[in-house]
Amino acid sequence: MALxxxxxxxxxxxxxxxxxxxxxxxxxxxxxxxxxxxxDAYMDSCPHYTGGTPMAWRRDAYLNxxxxxxxxxxxxxxFDIDTGDCVSGPCLGRKLTRVTLTExxxxxxxxxxxxxxxxxxxx
Length: 123
Description:
By secondary structure, this protein is mainly β. The chain has one domain (about 5-120): Rieske [2Fe-2S] iron-sulphur domain (Rieske Iron-sulfur Protein, 3-layer Sandwich). The protein contains one helix and nine strands; from the N terminus they run βββββββββα. It has one helix spanning about 115-120, and strands spanning about 5-10, 15-20, 30-35, 40-45, 70, 75-80, 85-90, 100-105, 110. The chain has a three-stranded antiparallel sheet with strand order 1-9-8. It starts with a strand and ends with a helix. GO terms for molecular function: 2 iron, 2 sulfur cluster binding; metal ion binding. InterPro entries: Rieske_2Fe-2S (IPR017941), Rieske_2Fe-2S_sf (IPR036922). Keywords: 2Fe-2S, Iron, Iron-sulfur, Metal-binding. Pfam families: Rieske.
């Protein structure tokens, strides 16, 4: 399986979320959330509308005010960090698209290449 590098785990502070483009031409970022040693990743695409909407109102602003949920600031939706399930807002019953993270022996994180293919511009 081909992998695309995102970052080193230390680039994501504990309790924070950051977005990374898997390829420069990708339309969507991959959100990586770190809580302690646990890392979760999702596509930066709110399921409220078909085609998705980016969730952050500014760069890397993916968490709600108290850092307990991923938030879509365009729709006031909240998502469980562990499952990606919408727990509040207009997309109840839907969930974020989880992305599989691979970590190498020194802490560099990668995602499957198909993630960029799903998000890349069709030309």
